[in-house]
Amino acid sequence: MAGGKLTPRQKMINLMYLVFIAMLALNMSKEVLSAFGILNNKIIESNSVADARNQSSFEQLAQKAQDQPLQFGDKKAKVEKIRALCKDFSTYLESMKTEFTKEFKRDEDGNLPFESMDKGDMVDQKWFNGDKPSKDGQLFLDKMANFKSQIKQIGGSSIADSEMKKIEKRFATEPVKSKNAGTTLGWLDYNFKGFPLIATVTKLSQLQADIKTTESDIIAGMFQTDLVAAASLTAYQPIVVPDKTAFFQGESVTGKIILGKFDPNLVAKSVIVNGASVPAEAGQAKFSFGAGNVGEHEITGSFNFDEGGKVVSLPIKGNYVVVPQPKSANISADKMNVVYRGLPNPMTISFAGISDDKVTASAPGLSRASGNGKYNLSPGSGTEVTVSVTAKLPDNKTVSDKKTFRIKNIPAPAGAIGGTTGVTKGAKSRLEVSTISAKLEDFLYDLDFQVTQFTFKVPGQPAIVVNGDKVDGRCRAALARVTRGDQVTVSDIKTKVTGAQIVVPTAAPVIYEIQ
Questions:
Q1: Cβ(271)–Cβ(277) below 8 Å
Q2: Which long-range CB contacts under 8 A does 315-320 form with residues at least 24 apart?
Q3: Which residues contact 510 (CB under 8 A, 6 or more apart)?
Q4: What gap in Å lies between CA 507 and CA 25, rounded to an integer?
Q5: What contacts 24+ positions apart, CB below 8 Å, involve 423-426?
Q6: Is residue 8 part of a domain?
Q7: Model confidence at 278: pLDDT above 90
Q8: Cα-atom radius of gyration of the chain, to the nearest Å?
Q9: Is residue 383 within 8 Å of residue 476, measured between CB atoms?
Q10: What is the phi/psi pair of residue 139, to 5°?
């Protein structure tokens, strides 16, 4: 057909042939139209499944927002707005499909007559005005553009940049370079102008599918952000957890180092520590209670969260050790560790950090007294006594220690007349009625001495031995011969301590000068 000089008849035949080929191209086969219809039904069915899946995902997010409002509340609010936007756009597309197919009768299965939907005149008349979009066509393009921008505005930083780029590409309406037309066409022109109606309906169903996919990806992304943050090592910090909070010198320090994370958006429903409720704060809970007695104690309780409509409890288990609070400095003079024979020398015996019921002390003459760690030591014969102490540690090991004390007799007291020791002065009449006593001044213990015997000596007179603590008739007879300035000596004063079996040295003499 393309070579040589043609006759007018041949030219007419060739022209008719070209018209015939064009007519064949314009009349799409029934198989292709049916294929579009079947594809449209498949997309509609898939969209219904996507709706159910998106609803289920949103309900999970809503439950998370109810359980942890700080962590998921804002995300739930954003997803609600985006779902409303998706529903509005999808409803608009459905209205277009309904309008374009209202003149076609569906069969008993609800299917459109796909093979009869080979013309696109209704779409062209509604969406195009010559080579440009009509008012309704521009409305369709504006809804596409508004859908993208609204999602970006609502989602903000909650939607990853990579995800937002996919959404923008999915609903792009930029002009398209057409190889067949040999020029650049508007997006609406390239995708819808001159197409069979069933193809247009299928494309609108696919746009609805894109909307469902967008909604699903955004909901998944809201969860994925928290999953990535939770899995990131930067969210964790090493936490040292010793097996106990107090160790003794020489003991091995044992424990473990775990990875934990502090989430400021995670707030427990309730926190129980040692049976008492404590306030739940963002990512933590602070507690305060009395330390208790000396020794090891446990900390127990639970962190309680709402999850999926149920309460999930995370157990709390720890321990701590109470040691005695220092009330005085430990100051000792090693050369003066002395106990006195025959006296109940009070002692305090303890092991730091170990309760009194796990401490055992022993020594000759050692006995328990009233109060934790209180003892009395009454040494007998010998010059030294050793106190041995054994204690059981929290790990059931035992430790021991000992200390040696010197044993001394109590020092000799000083004789006294009228409560005065050494040399005293007074009238003869006062001496005649005085009681002879004994005193041990500047001594650690307050002892009550009772005089049992003394020797009474007046100058120029024989010494008189008196049993008891008072001057008798013999003493008064001797005093009758004394003159002013004479000194009466009371010596060899023997005593005993009230309430104790102690050998007391003879008291120092006392002198009374007659005035």
A1: yes
A2: 316/272, 316/273, 319/243, 319/244, 319/245, 320/244, 320/245, 320/246, 320/291, 320/296
A3: 414, 415, 416, 417, 420, 421, 422, 423, 424, 436, 489, 490, 493
A4: 145
A5: 423/487, 423/510, 423/511, 423/512, 423/513, 424/510, 424/511, 424/512, 424/513, 425/512, 425/513, 425/514, 425/515, 426/512, 426/513, 426/514, 426/515
A6: no
A7: no
A8: 55
A9: no
A10: -60, -40
Mean pLDDT, rounded, for 290-302: 76
- Selection from 143, 154, 140, 172 nearest residue 215 by Cα: 154
pLDDT confidence band for 63 (50 / 70 / 90): confident
Mean pLDDT for the chain overall: 81
Instruction: At 480, list the tokens.
Output: 């009758």
Quick check: is 9 in a domain? Answer: no
Same domain? For 34 and 159 the reply is yes
Answer whether 268's CB lies under 8 Å from 303's CB.
yes
Has residue 208 got a pLDDT over 90? yes
With a cut of 50, say whether residue 40 has pLDDT above it: yes
DSSP 98: H
Strand 487-497 with 449-457, pairing:
antiparallel
Whether 204 and 99 have beta carbons less than 8 Å apart is answered as no
The single residue listed with the structure tokens 């090493």 is 238
How does strand 398-408 pair with strand 338-340?
parallel
Q: Which domain covers residue 266, as residue numbers? A: 237-322
Asked, for residue 400, whether it belongs to a domain, the answer is yes
Compute the average pLDDT of residues 354-382.
87
Amino acid (one-letter) located at 490? V
Domain boundary pick from 200, 231, 262: 231
Instruction: Check if the beta carbon of residue 196 is closer than 8 Å to that of residue 120.
Output: yes
The C-alpha atoms of residue 99 and residue 139 are separated, in whole angstroms, by 15
Put simply, whether the predicted model's pTM sits higher than 0.85 gets the answer no
Instruction: Kindly report, residue by residue over 302-350, the tens digit of the pLDDT.
Output: 777 666 567 777 787 777 777 665 554 454 555 568 888 888 888 888 8
The pLDDT value given to residue 343 = 84
Same domain, 198 and 292: no
State pLDDT tens for residues 147-190: 999 999 998 888 888 889 999 999 999 988 877 767 888 899 98
**DSSP letter string over 233-288?**
GGG-EEEEEESSS---TTSPP-EEEEEE---TT-B-SEEEETTEEE-EEBTEE---
Same-domain pairing of 66 and 136: yes
